[in-house]
Structure formats: C-alpha cells, structure tokens
Amino acid sequence: MSIIDNSTGKIHVHNPKNQIKESKGYKIFTVVNTIIMILVSFATLYPFLYLVSQSFSSDQAIFAGHTGLIPEGFNIDTYIYVVTRNPIAPWPDLFPNFRIPEFIVYYMNTIFYTIVGTVLSLFFSSILAYPLSKPNLKVNKVLSPFIIFTMYFGGGLIANYVLVLRLGLKNSMWGFILPMLISTYYVILMRSFFMTIPKDLEEAGEIDGLNKWGVFWYIARPLSTPIIATMTLFYAVMYWNNWFNAKLYLQDKVKWPVAYFLQTIIRGAGSSDPDAQNMTANIKSCAMVLTVLPIICVYPFIQKYYVQGMMLGGVKE
Amino acid sequence: MAKKEDVSNIIAWSPRQISTRERLVKDIRINWQLYAMFLLPVIYYIIFRYIPMFGNILAFRKYNPGGSIFGQGPLTLKYFKQFITAKPFWQAFSNTLILNGLYLLFRFPLTLIFALLLNEIKNLHWKKFVQTVSYLPHFISMVIVCGMLKELLSTHGPINDLIYKLGGEKISFISLAEWFRTIFVTSGVWQSLGWGTILYLAAMSGINPSLYEAATVDGASHFQQVIHVTIPCILPTIATLLILDIGGLVGSGGAFEKVYLLYSPMTYETSDIVSTYVFRMGVESGSINFATAVGLFEGLINLVLLTCANFVSRKVAKTSLW
Description:
The complex is a heterodimer.
Chain A: E1 2-4, E2 11-13, H1 16-56, H2 59-63, H3 77-84, E3 87-88, E4 100-101, H4 102-132, H5 140-152, H6 156-166, H7 173-177, H8 184-195, H9 199-207, H10 212-223, H11 225-241, H12 244-249, H13 258-267, H14 281-314
Antiparallel strand pairs in A: 1-2, 3-4
Helix pairs in contact in A: 1-14, 3-14, 4-8, 4-11, 8-11, 8-14, 9-10, 11-14, 13-14
Chain B: H1 2-12, H2 20-30, H3 32-55, H4 78-84, H5 87-120, H6 124-135, H7 142-153, H8 158-165, H9 177-192, H10 198-205, H11 209-217, H12 222-247, H13 255-262, H14 268-271, H15 274-284, H16 288-316
C-alpha cells in the first residue's frame, strides 16, 4: 500500500510490519540519542561559556566565588585592564620611549608569526610535495622513505634543542618558526592531493611552453585550492597555538607570542613573570577568551576544509 | 644493410642495458627543474630532521656547551646505565604506559559509540551542528585547554562549588596525585571525542545503502542493522585505528604539553611521563647527555612498536601507514 503525498509529491511506502516493529523502540532511541547529543554539545561548550562568564564578571563576584554561566556584576573593565596593562617597549634599541601594553605586543607577535610562518610553510611544503607526487620521478623511490621516516623516528627534544642553540637561533623569531616549518604529515596530505591532478592538463601546459615550475605555479597550484586552503588553516592554527618553541627559544618578552604569555600566567607558581601570581580568575579568563576568539570565529567556516583534509589522510597515501 | 643497423641500434638503446646510475643521470637531465624544486626542502630535512637524529649520539658521547653537537671523546654507555638505575625514570616510564593505556581504553570505545550515534541522526542540520561543536576542542591550544581545566577544577571553581553544595568537602584536584589520571583521561576524551569520529563517519558514509535495504527486507531492526551491517563494514577502519593507537602507547604524542602544563612536583608520582622527565633533566637541569639517552630509549621503543603495529595492521586490515 503506498500513498502519494500531494503537497510534496513524495511516495510513502507503507509497510505495516516494519512500522509496528520499529516505531516504539526507535522513537525511544531517537529521544535518548537527542538527549545524549545535547549533553555532549553542552559539555563541549560549557568550559568556553564559563570562561566568557568569568571574564565579564566583577572582581567582587570572583572573590565571592561566582561560578555561574551568567556574568555577575557585568563589566568590561577586565578587558580594558588586560589590553592596557604593563606597557613594554617593543623596539627598545630604536625607540626606547615608545611603549605598548604587553598583551597587544604579544598578540601582534602571534599574528606576525602566524602569517610569516604559514606562508613559508605552505611554500616549502608544496615545493616538496609536488615533485613527490610525480610517479615517474626516479628519485622518489629514495626521497619518499627519506621524508616519511622522520615521522617515526627523530632527534627528540634534546638534540633539536641543542641544534637550534648551535645554529644561533635562540631569541630569534626563526627559532620559533623554523623547527616546525615543514610538517611531514601535511606534506603527505598535499602529495595525495597533487596526485589526483589530471596529467593531461600538466602535459598541455608543457606543450604550450611552460617549464616544470610554470606548470606547478600556473596549472597545479590553481587546481589545488581545496588542499591549499586546508593546509593554510592547519599551519595557521599550529603557529597560533604554539607556545613550546617560544618557551625553549624566546627569552625577550617583546618577542613572546600570546600563547606563551598565557602559559606563564596559567602556570602561576614558578612562572617567570613575577606578577603572574596576582592574576585573578577573571584576568586569566579574559586573556584566554581574547586568544581563542579568532579561532572560534573562523572555525565554523573552515571546518569543512579540515574534515576534507583528514579524509585525504585517511585514504592512504 | 641500413635497416639491420637501425635494429641493432635500437637493441643497444633498450632500457635494460642502462645502469641505474645512468638512468638517474638521464632523469635528472630531463626533470632537473623538479629536482631543483625539492632541493631547499631536502636541505631543511637534513638540517632540522636528520642532524638531530644523528645528534642522538649525545646519548653515548659527552657534550660540552659550545662544543660539537655530536659530542666529544670516546663512546660510553655511562648515561644509559645512569638512567636505567634511576628510579624517577622508571616511574616516568610506567606513568607513560598507564596514562596512554587508560586514555586509549576510554577514548577508543567512546569515540566509536559517538560515531555510531552521530550516524543515526536523521536531521542533517542538527547533525552538522553537533559535529561542528564536538570538533571544536581539537583546534584549541593546549594552553587554553589546561587553563580552562585549572579554572574549572580550582577550589573556587564550579566543580568544587557543586561538591560543596551537595555537602561534600572541597578537593584541590590539580595538586593531588590521585586525581591526575582522571583529569588527564577525561580532558583527553573531551578534546578528541568529536574529531576521532571523522574517519569512522567517512567509512560509514561509504557503506552501500543496498546492504541496509536488504537487511530491512530480511526484517532486521534498526539495532540489528547496526550490529550486522554498520559495524562489520567499518571493521577495517576500527582495526587499523586500534592497532596504530596501540603502536603509539609509548610515544608521548600530544601528552607532553598537557602533562607539562598540568603537573607539579606534588603530583610527579602519577603525572611525570618520559618526555616531561627528559625536558626537566635536559633543558631545565642541563644534563644534556642523560636526557638524550632517555629520549633515545623512548624513541627506539616507539619505533619498534609502531613498526610492529604497522606490520600487524597490514596483515589484519590490509591497510598500513607505509
């Protein structure tokens, strides 16, 4: 027995046996499943909402032990305090009297490192991944294992640390960027994508007089927008979130990225920042909200690229 | 006559008679632009990946600050003997295994169940929303994650507030060794639950719908379809991920940052892992040789485990990392 729904034109195939067997248990399941999903979503968002609530609450509320999700004694004084406190001179040699609040300096550093690092990483990863994607290139039999082996065995923390010190990169932005310039995993993802570019197009380019670099730049690169978008985001998030290289290699406060500043105030005791001890919960929350904000704002729009990138990796190289 | 000569020439030029070296030279001549392209990245790999790899020799040779990064003097097993007999090392080693093992034990089944439940959502907007929300923690810096944890778990935080309201005693979670594992595993699940489902969902979307139709015709209930269609179809994915996770049990992976940000001398007995131990000994205390030896030991065990895992994965699930 089938019924044609006049309004939508859909055909409902009515199978009485199926309906009776499925409906009750399945309905209960759907309700339970929805509840589980709501709980998971809430549990995921709760810490963020809590931070936001803390950051807008007044000092008195924080000392009194405010723990709700609604800010108590709503104010933006904490934000103003965080972005204006403790001015430091970003260029002490050139302009000793020019001072900017430290949080702004760290934030600008993070933006600068993220942009420079991401551009360089993308360039170096793609000029490695592109030749690797050519099956007829003889050297790839050696080059692929050479690259991939580094994913499974490496120098470890200490040998890398000693190397960077000996290269004289301590206290330089290159000490922050260079150790993570090329991620082997991302190179493999890019290679998988480059392999899917139709060979005919590249050959046509060569016949029209482009050399290999020209083919790479004018044909392969424009065809690779999805993977380049994915990689931009992978690398940008990696640089934005990194604090550990800063801890190892950046001594001068004026060079710190904001993630490392957060680490010093969150660790509190034993931190290198003496006034980290005085950081109250709302100040910490406020700094964290400001740091995480760009990622949360951009994230919903870029999510599909990330997922695509992950799936490329799942489909074996 | 002329024709015969041509033929002999062709035979002489057949690729079989060209040595590998000649072939490579020829390849370089044709594709020199591609070779030039990867030159810089390869130099990068040599400097930043392979030199430190050989720098592991510091596990066997004395390092003098300012001296060669490959150490000086004769090779010695002194540093290995030192850490093999050091109690904190074995504590760190067993903590690494316990923390990674517990984390895997909880994360793995929960991720799978979550993926199955996500797959059952029929409303696509709702599904998209839950996915978007649950992937979010994956992108958050570990500094923020640990900062949030410390706020939530502090003595004036919401969790202690709840305990207090329910009539319990306040607990300073962060400074108690017996709570470290719980905190580590719970926050790890929070971070990876959504992201871990991606490969499962991809595998599920690849299942042929006719299998479900056939199961429906045979009278299978929804639950039976999950047991007899969905799970068998994604079994290779499950096996691969499980085997590779087991292969990574000794590696510190993402654990280093979290442990480093959350631990304190008060909780070392449950929280100190090999990589944090290496960091403390090498970078903070300056025992470069000792720390290199520990790091090398961990790296080698990790390499062996991963190789075995990869081998098993290739045999069982017909997929492998390399």
